[in-house]
Amino acid sequence: MDVRPGDILVMKKTHPCGGNRFAVLRSGMDFKLKCEKCGHEIMVKRSRAEKNIKSIER
Known about the structure:
Distance between the termini: 14 Å
Shape: globular
Low-confidence stretches: none
Strand content: 35-45%
Number of helices: 1
């Protein structure tokens, strides 16, 4: 899956704050994502994140 820094990922599951849109800050073996709603930054394994992606917005 081609995910680049700067992309917006719309996920199947929501963040506890209620948002499901995350900005990609870093990609590689894992992703560093920032919630668009609350600003919380998280690190997620690439395999786990790719299963939960609904769509990618460039």
